[in-house]
């Protein structure tokens, strides 16, 4: 039995590269969610007129990794305190959001946000939005598994590799065997 959750935390390449490495995560698909346009494209997203965020739809086995643990890892490996921004990526397409599918997912997400805030992991207030899931549109093929296919690119080396390293350091016991 698997579940799905859709998450936005800046560049989808980063979120996909991190979460696919976790035990229990069966797939991580980069795409678009949270907007009004049907079948958005990377170009429409970055014009800023469709309301979607770069997002990753995660399919996971809750018997191996709980939604609570998955969201906790997600919330510690991207900056959930910057509104419509992750590092140099600026705009609503880079917002931090959890797109919940039902009341249970919303409740778990709210609990994780409160726990992370109480732990003081981030010095600023968390601005991650809880948004009801409406639709997910997979991104173009060249965005899928971007990190694995382009590990030597400057963006991957400068932005994604440090996040993967942080994942390995802080959550080594939660990683799939490589």
Written description of the protein model:
This protein has 178 residues and is α+β, with helices and mostly antiparallel strands. It has a single domain (3-174), classed as Peptide methionine sulphoxide reductase MsrA (Peptide Methionine Sulfoxide Reductase, Chain A, 2-Layer Sandwich), CATH 3.30.1060. It has helices at residues 12-19, 42-47, 67-77, 103-119, 146-149, 154-170; strands at residues 3-9, 25-33, 53-60, 85-86, 89-90, 96-100, 129-132, 136-138. The strands form two sheets. It has a six-stranded mixed β-sheet, covered by helices on one side. A two-stranded antiparallel ribbon has the order 4-5. Helix 1 (12-19) packs parallel to helix 6 and helix 3 crosses helix 4. The relative contact order is 0.23.
Strand neighbour order, sheet with most strands: 7-6-1-3-2-8
Identify low-pLDDT runs.
none
Average pLDDT rating:
94
Radius of gyration equals 15 Å
**How many structurally independent domains?**
1
N-to-C CA distance: 24 Å
CATH class: Alpha Beta
Main β-sheet, in a few words? 6 strands, mixed
- CATH homologous superfamily placement: Peptide methionine sulphoxide reductase MsrA
- The assigned structural class equals alpha+beta
Task: Give the SSE string.
Answer: EHEHEHEEEHEEHH
Backbone shape: globular
